C-alpha cells in the first residue's frame, strides 16, 4: 500500500509523459481485474454447480454423453422417415413420368386410328378382313404346318397309367 501511495505521489508532482500514461494504465489494470474476477466467478459457479449436483468430472461427461445419445436417437427416427419419404417421392415421380410417356403414345395411336384408311388397313392386317368382291389367299409355308402339328411345350400328352403314379409324379415334380 505504501508503494502505491508513493508512486501516485511521485506521478502527481511531475508533468509530462507519466501523467499522460496514467489513464491508460488504470484502464488496463481495471480490465485485468475484471477479467480475473469474471474467470474466478465462472470457475466458482461451475464448481458450485458440480458440488450442488454432486457430480465428478467423469460423471458429468457420462451425463453429457447420455444426453447427446438421446438427442441422436430423437433425431434419427424423423430423419429416417424423411429419407424414406424422399425416396418414395422420387420413385413416384419416375412412375408418373413413365405414365405420361405412355399417355402420349396412346394419344398418338388414337390420332392414327382417327383416319378411316388406317382402321381399314388394321382390320385387313390383324383381322384378315377382305372387302366384298376380293379373293383372299392364305399362303402356308411348311414351317407353319410343323409348328401347328407339334403340341406346345407346356401341354405334354397324358401318359396312361394308374392315378397314384400320376399323383406321385406331380408331387415329386
From TrEMBL:
Keyword hit for Cell cycle: no
Region listing for Disordered, in residue ranges: 1-42, 140-165
InterPro entries named in the record: FtsL/DivIC
Keywords recorded for this protein, A-Z: Membrane, Transmembrane, Transmembrane helix
Stretches with biased composition (Basic residues): 30-42
Residues spanning the membrane: 61-83
Name recorded for this polypeptide: Septum formation initiator family protein
Protein species of origin: Amycolatopsis suaedae
Lineage: Bacteria, Bacillati, Actinomycetota, Actinomycetes, Pseudonocardiales
Amino acid at each position: 500500500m505504501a508503494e502505491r501511495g508513493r508512486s501516485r505521489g511521485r506521478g502527481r508532482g511531475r508533468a509530462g509523459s507519466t501523467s499522460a500514461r496514467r489513464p491508460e494504465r488504470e484502464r488496463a489494470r481495471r480490465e485485468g481485474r475484471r477479467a480475473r474476477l469474471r474467470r474466478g466467478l465462472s470457475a466458482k459457479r461451475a464448481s458450485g454447480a458440480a458440488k450442488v449436483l454432486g457430480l465428478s468430472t467423469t460423471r458429468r461427461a457420462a451425463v453429457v454423453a447420455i444426453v447427446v445419445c438421446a438427442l441422436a436417437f430423437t433425431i434419427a427416427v424423423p430423419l429416417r422417415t424423411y429419407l424414406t419419404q424422399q425416396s418414395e417421392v422420387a420413385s413416384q415421380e419416375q412412375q408418373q413420368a413413365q405414365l405420361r410417356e405412355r399417355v402420349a403414345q396412346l394419344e398418338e395411336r388414337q390420332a392414327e386410328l382417327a383416319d378411316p384408311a388406317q382402321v381399314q388397313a388394321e382390320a385387313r392386317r390383324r383381322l384378315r378382313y377382305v372387302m366384298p368382291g376380293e379373293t383372299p389367299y392364305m399362303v402356308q409355308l411348311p414351317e407353319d404346318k410343323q409348328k401347328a402339328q407339334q403340341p406346345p411345350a407346356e401341354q405334354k400328352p397324358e401318359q396312361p397309367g394308374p392315378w397314384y403314379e400320376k399323383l406321385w409324379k406331380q408331387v415329386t415334380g
